[in-house]
Structure formats: structure tokens, C-alpha cells
Design a protein that fits this description.
The protein is mainly alpha-helical. It has one domain. The protein contains ten helices and five strands; from the N terminus they run H-H-E-E-H-H-H-H-E-E-H-H-H-H-E. The chain has a three-stranded antiparallel β-sheet with strand order 3-4-5. The termini are far apart. The chain binds FE2/S2 (inorganic) cluster (FES). FE2/S2 (inorganic) cluster (FES) binds next to helix 5, helix 6 and helix 8.
Length: about 290
């Protein structure tokens, strides 16, 4: 409260004695997240209104991360897990993205970094450190916002998605697969699309494995496992020491969690856009290395 009295002017939303450009970060967040949400919404419902071959869901061995895993699709693409949409499936819900995007979206919405970012940028709650808010009853994450505690469960789903996207990136190395044959019977080629999907997985993994919940999961409930003299370091055949190494790895990613969050967000949208453009012939998918 001392800081508030020292720096915040008593009246008016946005009042402060801060002289730096404190509003630039919330502004960038507002614009960046709004653009992503608009693009994501558009791509989620797009397949409902256009023929599947025009929807940009897949192109040969490439599968857009917006639709991965591809649970249902009306045409028999080799990425499909279950086949065609059931007859009774409502026409307005015939987008493979609707079935899966709630999981990565849940991870981002409940992410500790994004919470801070969108509370400030969209809800002005708080607006920024030592800046007056539009209301005077900040309650923190209480009431309905307690749902944010489900984050750790979305983390488990996020790790599962990393595994599935890695599989799709691996599959994107095999081309000209004979009809009905397993994908590894195709020609091995690294195309630009392969690299795009690989980079997407790399950035998503950097974001997911730097998660605060994962850090607590690995490092929690042990007493000072970083202390060399700690007798518990030999517990479970050195398990604490192994956990300490893991914890250090997660912590390294965690330090730059916001950066991983933004790069991976941009990349997942770009990877989808890339597959979409290749699939409708706007640009070719060049082979970089062919074996
Ligand atoms: S805190 Fe950001 S993904 Fe968990």
C-alpha cells in the first residue's frame, strides 16, 4: 500500500506518477492476443463453410497444428484417426478444430503468464503496478477465478499434444506414400513444411516444459534438494538429484516463459497458415533435402 500512496494519483483510471511507458506492454498484449483470437476463431469455423480440400487442414503429409490430431474428416485423408464425421454430427460443428482446440486453449487461458498479461490488458485488473484501476475492489483470483487452478490438468494435456504434434512432424518427413501403405513407406524428404512443423513443436515444447506447474510438480515436496550436504539427496537411489537436474532444466525454460509463450503462439498460427497456403496452391512446398 505504501507504493500505491507514493506513486498512484488518488483520482482517475490510469492515474500514476510513473514516468515510463508502462502502457506499452499491455497494449502489445491487447493487440497480439486479439489478432490471434480472431485468426484462431476464423480458422476454427472455416472448415464448416468450405469444401474440405479448400479448408487448409492438411496437404499430403502436412497436417496443420490447428487440426492435429485429426479425429474426424469427411474425406479419407491418411491423417484421420476415426474416419468420417458420424451422420448425426451437426453440420455447424463439422470442423475438426472444434473437437480439440479447447485443450491447448485451456492451457494458454490458465497459464500463469497469460493470466497476468490478459488481466492487465483486457480486464484492467490490475492495470499496471502503481497505476490507478477503473475499480477499487481488487479481489485477486477468488470466486469464479478459482477455476484457474485446473491449469495443471491442462498441462498434462499439453504434454500429450506435444507428443502428437511430434508424431505429425515426423510423418511430414515421408512423402509420396503409396495408397494404403504405412507412412514410413514413403520417400524421405525434408521440405520447408517439415521444418515449419518441427519448429512449431520445438517452440511449443519450450513453452510447455517451462510451465510453472511443471516446475512445482518436479521440484515440490522435497527439502532443499539443491543442497549438496542434504542427506535426503541419496533418497530413492539418487532420485532427488535426478529431480534436481530436471528442475534446473525446467527452471531455465521457465525464466523466459513469456518469450516462449509469444513465439510459440505466433508459430502455431504461422504453421497453420503455411499448410493452408500450400494446400490451396498459393505457394509450393519446396524440398530442402531429399534422400
Ligand atoms: S504457467 Fe504457462 S503453461 Fe503453465
Amino acid at each position: 500500500m505504501e507504493a500505491r500512496e507514493d506513486l498512484v494519483e488518488s483520482s482517475g483510471f490510469g492515474g500514476t506518477q510513473r514516468t515510463d511507458n508502462w502502457w506499452t506492454h499491455p497494449m502489445v498484449v491487447l493487440v497480439g492476443l486479439s489478432l490471434f483470437v480472431l485468426y484462431g476463431l476464423f480458422r476454427t469455423i472455416y472448415p464448416v463453410f468450405v469444401p474440405e480440400e479448400m479448408a487448409g487442414i492438411y496437404h499430403e503429409s502436412l497436417l496443420s497444428p490447428f487440426y492435429s490430431p485429426l479425429l474426424f474428416a469427411d474425406q479419407a485423408a491418411h491423417h484421420v484417426v476415426f474416419g468420417q464425421f458420424p451422420e448425426w454430427w451437426p453440420q455447424l460443428l463439422r470442423s475438426p478444430a472444434i473437437l480439440i482446440l479447447w485443450a491447448p486453449l485451456g492451457l494458454r487461458v490458465t497459464c500463469y503468464y497469460y493470466r497476468k498479461a490478459y488481466y492487465r490488458a483486457f480486464l484492467q485488473d490490475p492495470t499496471a503496478c502503481a497505476v490507478s484501476e477503473p475499480r477499487d475492489d481488487y479481489k485477486g483470483e477468488t470466486g469464479l477465478l478459482l477455476f484457474q487452478n485446473v491449469h495443471r490438468y491442462f498441462l498434462y494435456l499439453g504434454i500429450l499434444f506435444i507428443a502428437m504434434l511430434s508424431f505429425e512432424a515426423l510423418r511430414a518427413m515421408f512423402w509420396n506414400v503409396p495408397s494404403g501403405a504405412p507412412f514410413w513407406h514413403g520417400d524421405v524428404q525434408i521440405r520447408v513444411g517439415t521444418l515449419v512443423l518441427m519448429l512449431n513443436v520445438f517452440l511449443l515444447a519450450g513453452y510447455t516444459f517451462g510451465c510453472h506447474s511443471l516446475r512445482y510438480l518436479i521440484g515440490g515436496k522435497k527439502r532443499c534438494f539443491s543442497c549438496p550436504a542434504n542427506p535426503h539427496n541419496d533418497e530413492d537411489g539418487g532420485a532427488i538429484t535426478k529431480r534436481y537436474s530436471l528442475w534446473k532444466g525446467v527452471s531455465k525454460l521457465n525464466v523466459n516463459h513469456a518469450i516462449w509463450a509469444w513465439f510459440s503462439l505466433f508459430m502455431v498460427a504461422f504453421a497453420d497458415f503455411y499448410v493452408w497456403m500450400v494446400s490451396i496452391g498459393v505457394w509450393p512446398d519446396y524440398a530442402v533435402i531429399a534422400f
